[in-house]
Structure formats: C-alpha cells, structure tokens
Amino acid sequence: MRFLCLHGMGTSGAIFSIQTSAFRSKLDPEKYVFDFVDAPFESAPSAGVDAFFPPPNYTFWRGIDPTDVKGAHEWLLTLLDRQGPYDGVVCFSQGCALISSFILYHNNERPEEPLPFKAAIFICGGIPLGVISDLGLPVSAEAWEINERTGRELHEKAGAAAAEIQAIMEGGRDARKGLWDRTDTLDHDPLAEFPTDRTNVFGLDYTRFPDTLKITIPTVHIYGSKDPRYPSSMQLIHFSEEGKRRIYDHAGGHDIPRTTVVSDKIAELVKWLEVMLTE
After folding, report:
1. Structure pTM?
2. What's the pLDDT at 126?
3. Using DSSP, how many helices (H) and how many strands (E) does the chain show?
4. If phi over 0 gives left and psi between -120 and 50 gives alpha, with beta otherwise, what is residue 195?
5. What pLDDT does 175 receive?
6. Alpha carbons 157 and 151: distance in angstroms, whole number
7. pLDDT score of 211
C-alpha cells in the first residue's frame, strides 16, 4: 500500500516522518510505503515545535475560510496527479482538516466520481466548522464556542508542554512523564465513554446532516483522550460510516505516542485497512 502523509500546521513532512517512525517500524517497508510531503506555504512553527525541530515549517492554508481551504484542495489535486496514485492518506491535525474537508466537498459537488484515494488514517484531527457551515449544514453556537476554547487550550498547553520538556531535559529527568496529564482545563471528561448521541456531538446534530456527505471509504481514527481537540476528533468520527471505520484512543494528548503498545496498535490498524481494500 502506498500512503500520502500530510502533516500538522506549523510542522513539515520531515517532522511527521519522525512522529510516525515508531509505528511504521512495525510494518514491512516493501508492502507499506509512506510518502511525506510539505504543505505549500511556509509558516511559523506551531507552539512548542521550535523547541525540538529546526525550520522550515509549513501550513496548508494561511486563513481558515472556505476559499483558503478550497485553494489547498487544488494544491492537493495537483500533487495527487503528479505523484499518485495513492491507496490511502495518513494525516495529522491540520492534515486531517485538509483531507476531511476535501472529501465532504467532493461528496457534495462530485458524488458520481470516485475519490483519488481509497482509505484514510486520521490522527488527532477534525473538520473545520467553517467548511461544515459552507456546505449549508447547521453549526450551533455551542459548537463554535467549543471550537474556540479547545483551539486556545491546545495552543497554550502545547507551549507549556514544550517549556516543561525543556526543563525536564535540562534536569536529566524523564521527558515523557506527565506531559498531557493535567486534564482539569479540558472541555471534555477524558474518562467518558465514546459519545454515541448523534443529536449533540459537541454541538453538532448529525441527524440533521444528509447521508450523502458521509465519508464512506474505510477510515481509521486515532485520537488522545487528553487532547484538548478531542471534541473535533469525535465530530470527524461521526462523519465516517460506522461499518467502515475503526477508532483508537492512544490515551495521550495532541501527539502520537511512541510506546510499543500504541505503535503495535496503529500498525495493526494499517493492516486492517489493507484487508478492507482487498475484500
């Protein structure tokens, strides 16, 4: 299988390669190929990134309105035409926003055409609410408020985590201990069960959304129960067809833990996608 890999905002293909190296090491490189690319625009690093990785850093859009997002879709189509075909995509954070929004617009505007990829792995990401609204779907004030709060919380927590890691490293202690463990400021309960009430998934009522927009290709959704942006991950999951999706809580924050348990599980999910595409 060949995967296109799309990084988060303010990082790069090289950084995403490092972030995913642990689970990719569990997969046969002859069978699974991962192609890492940089987003089209240079940008400032995301909070905390510059403490660990040198520039340059990139973003798929400079604004977040539908025009900017659709511009990124044109870039994506050009890339797929030049470097494809790909069996699937692997995305993190903003990369998830790029792919999920691309699929929704595709389903709305060109439903008779197949997507240019057959499967997707979403890691710690969601769909921009502006895209949902642009498609004529209702987005409640509650959803907008949660989106604003969780975005601010992620920025603050990522910056604080970077400072903490730096202090820990200088003190020679365990750099991974407790980075996302402060959960009292989260907008959700990290111990709660997966939200099954489709009438209110952090402010979105999926019973009012047409089935024609659903993501029907096989999907894997990897998220962290301590991630401030957990609500957005839950919203994206509910856009995906239940019988063709797998979900996995890595129990961390807005990151990809490199533990053996997590790496083995993600590798297992990649193999599940392969099975789904061969059935």
Report:
1. 0.94
2. 96
3. 8, 8
4. beta
5. 46
6. 10
7. 95
14 in helix, strand or coil? helix
What is each CA distance from 225 to 107, 186, 256, in whole angstroms? 29, 10, 12
- Rounded CA-CA distance 97/99 in Å is 6
As averages over each run of 10 residues, the pLDDT of the chain (279 residues) reads 97 96 97 98 89 92 92 97 96 98 97 96 97 97 97 85 60 56 89 95 97 97 96 98 97 93 98 94
Main-chain phi, psi angles of 58, to 5 degrees = -140, 165
Cis peptide before 56 (omega within 30 of 0): yes
User: How many angstroms separate the CA atoms of 271 and 100, rounded?
Assistant: 21
Query: Do residues 98 and 246 lie in contact, with contact meaning Cβ atoms separated by under 8 Å?
Result: no
Peptide bond into 66 cis (omega under 30): no
Amino acid identity for residue 48 in this structure: G
pLDDT of residue 183: 87
Output the average pLDDT for the chain.
Answer: 93
Q: Three-state SS for 200?
A: coil
Alpha carbon distance 117, 182 (integer Å): 38
User: What residues are paired with 240 via a beta bridge?
Assistant: 215
DSSP state of 192: S
Site of tokens 């439903």: 111
Find the Cα–Cα–Cα–Cα dihedral 241, 247, 253, 255, rounded to 10°: -90
**CA 141 to CA 138: how far, in whole Å?**
10
Q: What is the pLDDT of residue 168?
A: 53
Rounded Cα gap, residues 223 and 267, in angstroms: 15
- The tokens of 168 are what? 């820990």
Show the CA angle centred on residue 42, arms to residues 146 and 52, nearest 5°.
Answer: 75
pLDDT, tens digit (0-9, with 9 covering 90-100), for 195-216: 999 999 999 999 999 999 999 9
